[in-house]
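User: Design a sequence. Structure:
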């Protein structure tokens, strides 16, 4: 299968879904919000966008199944290929009118990521990657930064909204990164964070309690842009491990060492 050609088709489907989100943002009001869990928001925009993606992706690769955030009816897993979909990564930003939210779709063959797209809706930036074919933003090649050390790095993170029993460990890790880098940013979308690492805007990103649909496309973007992605305390599979450390590769060991000083619990 030509994963690069398939990623072009994926980008078109993802952009179409993003156009729907952009249209709805103009008239959205908070009365349309639902709660999936504590501080975990969802709206009709998430659900309708997912339906658009499922319908479009079925045409791209009919034999593929789906791993979805919102559980669109009939979007079941398949044995070989599966699309991993987050229809609106950054829902909290969206409902509050903050302009960073993304459509994120990755394709796995078994457990191997082979194609991915993160479309940042407001900036109209389409980050695309395919296994062995590199990473692109609006079809211009992107690469991780060449900053060699943490001291000169800008780091991204995501603040936890559950699993508060790990808060003390997280705050100590956060404080250490604040002291050892140019600064720490919280964009509010893991998909955007990973795309920005791939594009060299951040040197690194770390977050815990993530799901596969938050990170699938972004992991492939970082790797195809020359970076590295692992779990916090080991070099396991971040797609299923719930913890992600992504970097330009050059500062990765420093990032893991910084986390290891204070992080005592495996998820």
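Assistant: Done.
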């Amino acid at each position: 299968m030509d994963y690069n050609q398939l990623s072009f088709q994926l980008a078109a489907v993802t952009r179409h879904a993003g156009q729907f989100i952009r249209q709805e943002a103009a008239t959205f009001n908070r009365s349309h919000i639902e709660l999936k869990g504590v501080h975990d928001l969802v709206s009709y925009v998430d659900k309708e966008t997912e339906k658009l993606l499922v319908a479009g992706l079925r045409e791209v690769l009919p034999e593929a199944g789906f791993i979805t955030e919102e559980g669109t009816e009939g979007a079941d897993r398949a044995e070989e290929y599966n699309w991993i979909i987050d229809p609106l990564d950054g829902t909290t930003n969206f409902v509050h009118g903050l302009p960073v939210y993304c459509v994120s779709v990755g394709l796995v063959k078994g457990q191997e990521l082979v194609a991915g797209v993160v479309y940042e809706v407001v900036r109209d930036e389409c980050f695309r990657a395919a296994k062995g074919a590199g990473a692109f933003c609006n079809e211009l090649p992107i690469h991780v930064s060449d900053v060699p050390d943490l001291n000169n790095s800008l780091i991204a993170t995501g603040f936890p909204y559950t699993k508060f029993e790990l808060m003390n460990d997280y705050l100590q890790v956060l404080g250490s990164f604040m002291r050892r880098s140019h600064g720490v940013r919280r964009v509010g979308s893991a998909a955007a964070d990973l795309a920005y690492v791939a594009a060299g805007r951040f040197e690194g990103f770390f977050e815990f309690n993530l799901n596969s649909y938050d990170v699938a496309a972004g992991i492939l973007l970082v790797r195809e842009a020359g970076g590295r992605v692992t779990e916090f305390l080991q070099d396991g599979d971040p797609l299923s491990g719930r913890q992600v450390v992504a970097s330009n590769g050059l500062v990765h060991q420093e990032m893991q060492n910084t986390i290891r000083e204070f992080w005592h619990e495996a998820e």
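The first helix runs from residue 3 to 25. The longest strand covers residues 81-89.
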